[in-house]
Hints:
Layout: H1 2-16, E1 27-32, H2 37-48, E2 52-57, H3 63-73, H4 92-106, E3 110-116, H5 120-130, E4 137-143, H6 150-174
Helix pairs in contact: 4-5, 5-6
Amino acid sequence: MALLTVSAAQAFFxxxxxxxxxxxxxxxxxxxxxxxxxxxxAGVKLAAAxxxxxxxxxxxxxxxxxxxxxxxxxxxxxxxxxTLTAALSRDTFEDALVTQQLVSKHNFKSxxxxxxxxxxxxxxxxxRLMLWDSNVKITRWAVTGGTQPRCVQVLSEMxxxxxxxxxxxxxxxxxxxxxxxxx
Length: 183
């Protein structure tokens, strides 16, 4: 039974890591899980195009401060993008958690999740788990990128996927952030 569960989860992960992009409809929130500047730029462009009412970049720096150079560089008026700053986050697990907190606080019903194509399955799964008891619609907007070969990215993300699931379980059991255990 355990082998079947693990196999099903790995198949889900691999199928969800295949490339694909649908143009997102308008959402309450554009949530960027950063890591590379291309992801932030993609979120800013979606917001400037009116695809989302609010923009949040999960990070250890406030959203407005992060996107300021992108707005200036692309000559996008700052008042066209409404930013929300989530609690500060240190990794993908915390990105999903602080996004869930924003969604709950503002009663959002739809999200455009922006991250890399190789991180999307893990980020989407974590966000979906965080929003399990809600009817929030999550639209994925994957940004291409990464310098490693695709197979290396997928294998690396598969390992991180299982680590993130362990983080989620630990958080649900203890109520503490996993990174706080190592302090």
